[in-house]
Records
---
Amino acid sequence: MSTLQELELAATRPKEVYGGDAKIVCDNLVRIYKTDGIEVQALQGLDLLVRAGELVAIVGASGSGKSTLLNILSGLDTPTAGVAKVGGYDLLTMKGRDRLRYRRETVGFIWQQTARNLLPYLNAADNVALPMGFAGKKRKYARRRSTELLDLLGVARCADRRPGQMSGGEQQRVSIAVALANDPEVVFADEPTGELDSATSQQVFDALRTANGELGVSIVVVTHDHEVTDQVQRTVEIRDGRTSTELLRRGGEDSTAEQFAVLDRAGRVQLPKEYLDALRMKDRVRVAKNSDHIGVWPDLVQGAAGSAGSAGSAGSTSAPSEED
Ligand SMILES: Nc1ncnc2c1ncn2[C@@H]1O[C@H](COP(=O)(O)OP(=O)(O)OP(=O)(O)O)[C@@H](O)[C@H]1O
């Protein structure tokens, strides 16, 4: 039993903060839309951590909640409940002036439609210099940084061209330079290659990787395209408003990706639907702890009887084999 002194000490000890020093922390994020009295839970307790310097893809089918998440992380929408923090900004409590500074200096954006990224009547150099002007940077500095960024992303030749005089891939690479102009901590890219062919998409991803590697900026790419997995080290899948599985690519470019399930703070794991369907797992599964893994088996008795909820049935199934 704890002494009073021990309890007092525990109470004064700083609590461990979820996510620690992660650049993006989403903890049990909920967004409910209400239209005509009908509620839609677009995000249903989403957890996500993105560390400094990571290049992460967030994928999900249409309606899974990607745009909702992106709108919250970009400061355009406010979540209903939960925690959402980016670069130290609390997105639930952030107000007017902070919101402006956050959107101008802490994060950068690349949208699918070029028209949202670049002004058609400015050349590439001026497009990149523009956000620096808004942030109060000197013209000379803006010029120099604009040249450096266009050079880094392989589009120095476009400096004097307007968007209409560039290819789609060049426009997106200039858009990356615009997003990086104010040296943000995180860049969000919404379907950045959605309108491009695969060779051009490759160039855009090469540019994103260069920005990530050379400048150390965290980059989050949101897309419905699962092929993106080949381009990044970590892919997080959203399903039904929650992060479900992660694919991690450890090692070099040619390494194969390993699939992981997300384990939340309450110990919940969402198993991939195809695994559940293949083994006809429903309502309840048997679990057993082994020295180095936890096994999960279908409840065979329940499956055979077609019944759900009969107490004790899990205990009466045959013992799982160690091969699983
Ligand atoms: N403004 C809104 N009002 C009501 N429901 C909404 C609103 N925006 C999104 N939803 C609903 O929330 C859920 C998640 O939508 P969201 O747009 O975030 O998904 P998504 O993964 O971005 O889909 P897509 O790839 O098609 O853009 C969907 O069921 C959608 O119908």
---
Amino acid sequence: MTPDIRPLIAGNWKMNGTRAELDQIKAMAEGVKTPLSEKVETLLCPPATLLYVATALCDDSPLLIGAQDCHQKVSGAHTGDISAQMIADCFGTHVIVGHSERRGDHAETDHLVRAKAEAAHEADLVAIICIGETLAERDAYQTLDVLKRQIFNSVPEGATAENTVIAYEPVWAIGTGLTPTNSDIEVAHAFMRAELVARLGGEGAAMRILYGGSVKPGNAGEIMAIENVDGVLVGGASLKADDFLAIYASCEPLVAEIA
Ligand SMILES: O=C(CO)COP(=O)(O)O
């Protein structure tokens, strides 16, 4: 973790969750009501179909609700898409942009991801910009080059520590049970920190950089203890309130230094 940066524990439900799973959101909303919530921010990104009801369930909870994608335009003839304004209208506070599954399934480019992040900022949402290398890129020792390119192309000039979060998700670690070594995570996060500082100055120094990819209750504490890892973006393990809350609780011993 980075001293003075409030960590973020974020869950991404992807294309999972119906009304039957609302009890999990209720349990998370209740479970994060502990003194730790003053030091650790929590966020859940359910599918768009549950967004409005989820924000209502979290009305009196520190658990924030966000979406998993937005269109780069405010409104118009874009069948099947939702805008950042629509997310804000449902009381969502964050939106994930550029997840590797969007980049893969919908051929999203770095430049489109940047336009989506700008749309999020226009709507006063926090953009969680996902970056990360594929297995082929890793095997070709291109990880840091990919991260440099994605930060340069996908992070808007107007990004601040308040309106933007970076999520490093190695594509090969998502849903596989595989994670980079702690030392690989440390090197990647230190590199991203330096790139963000070079690009955004003090805002880059204070920006949260999350790790995502096969984070579970069993490894979250160890990963978040690594320098420049300011929280986690969790897929599969965020579907169950017990697992999400266990990951949240694993911040407890780490946040002592945070103001
Ligand atoms: O893609 C992810 C979060 O956005 C990570 O997914 P898993 O935690 O299931 O590996």
---
Amino acid sequence: MKIFSSAQLQKADQLTVEREPIASIDLMERAATTVFQEIHQRLQGAPIPIKIFCGIGNNGGDGLVIARKLIEHGYHVTTYIVNYSDRRSKDFLINYDRIKNVTKDWPILIKGKNDFPTLTRNDFIVDAMFGLGLNRPVSGWTKDLIEHINAAEAFTLSIDIPSGLFSDQALAEEHAAIQADFTLTFQSLKTSFLLPQSEAYVGDFQIVDIGLDRDFLQTAIVHKFFITREEVIKRYKPRNKFSHKGMYGHVAIIGGSLGKMGSIVLATKASLVGGAGLATAFVPQCGISILQTALPEAMVVAVASHDHLKADQKTMDVLSDLQPTTVCFGMGTGQEQATIDTFHHILKNTKNAMVIDADGINILAAYPIMLKDIPAKSVLTPHPKELERLIGSWVDDFDKLKKTKEFSKLHDLVVLIKGAHTVVVDGDDLYFNSTGNPGMATAGSGDVLAGIISSLIAQDYISKDAAIIAVYLHGKAGDFAADKVSMQGVMASHLVEYLGEAILDLFKPQEPKT
Ligand SMILES: NC(=O)C1=CN([C@@H]2O[C@H](COP(=O)(O)OP(=O)(O)OC[C@H]3O[C@@H](n4cnc5c(N)ncnc54)[C@H](OP(=O)(O)O)[C@@H]3O)[C@@H](O)[C@H]2O)[C@H](O)CC1
Ligand SMILES: [K+]
């Protein structure tokens, strides 16, 4: 699913008005009516106090339409105009008049701190102060009002975007934005919703289709996407009836050290459950019986050394004789010099795209000279600390995206930014994951992900698609697991266990949205 920038959405608004054609006031009525219907469906006429805060632009105009519709349906609504400027928009003014037809009175004007209403936890607040027109941080008494609303801890629904939050740039900590519990957003997600810095503001969100110009939406070029089920299905390759295991690739998972063999078990198992035809774990001696006991389906090759990976020529020859389709390196290896040398040797002798995880990434960060030896389009799967070691620190989340893109382009790699909405970075293109839950922040979760990505590359998916499908399925498996064992109860093994269910779910008929 495409993620549009605020400039593109404003363009879409304008083109819809011209091409449909539809008067902008009618488009506002249509958009806000859709929001009203969503609210009405949830509240079902509940007699709770609803307080709607409207700005003076079109976001405020939306708020006025919602207020009018709610009043017409018998809700207890108080409407406030947050008068932060005298430059009221045309469509705001029309709706300012229209609401008077149902209330017989003007909404309450807020012009400063003295006008702030008392709010309680029992209020239902609708925030329609600023939308995509926000062009600078909110300041003065308007900022105080945002803080006043947040302090009430009442359920807050934001229209289009939590007021004060930017769509395409970061909000510094000292600035204020509405801490929404829920955001109903028009036509497209806003990038900031998916970034950790916005966590306090966005809450849950839902996209409402307001019928903007289809042609524009389909043809506009974007570099940001949301990884939905449809994005995965369109990339998924069904299996042929006459296929055999040799057609689904051979994954070599290389890593492990004394006390850290579990990571290899998880990754190797995930690669098999993910569909690879064959998997070989390539480990120090200490790993042989662990692997063979835990995972009879996998082959095991051990280097001569006992505790760490220290490959001699003989074992390297064994690896090249195996001719794995995909090599995955890094989990649990540690950073002994012999291991670093082994890694460097593997990099230089591998042609196909690899998957590099954990200590593999730490070694690359410590020895950037090795970056040039990584096969093109390899996938790096750092968690935030590992990413920082790799690309340096960032000022904010948008800067992190920019620096990761530069790194990806410079080295021709696919890089993951792991987190609540894991991002797959492929050059200029960013793919944000939609699945997963905080229960997945658990030991070994990343090993499973690296195993799935390796598995898909071995099955002939291009690295970017392998990463996109893998993060989605990994998250979905986590969601299924959390449903069964609770978020706290999720362990990495559950992610492997529920991976099959996540794959099956791709092809299950979905329940219609209520
Ligand atoms: N066009 C349509 O029919 C639709 C519009 N939709 C809704 O519109 C908003 C975007 O509305 P817009 O009027 O462009 O802007 P806002 O309502 O977000 O903001 C109003 C004005 O506020 C000023 N501004 C910006 N930042 C600040 C600030 N920090 N402090 C004070 N004032 C600020 C700015 O004007 P300036 O001249 O002062 O710069 C804004 O113009 C969109 O989000 C939707 O909710 C829907 O898309 C439906 C169709
Ligand atoms: K808003």
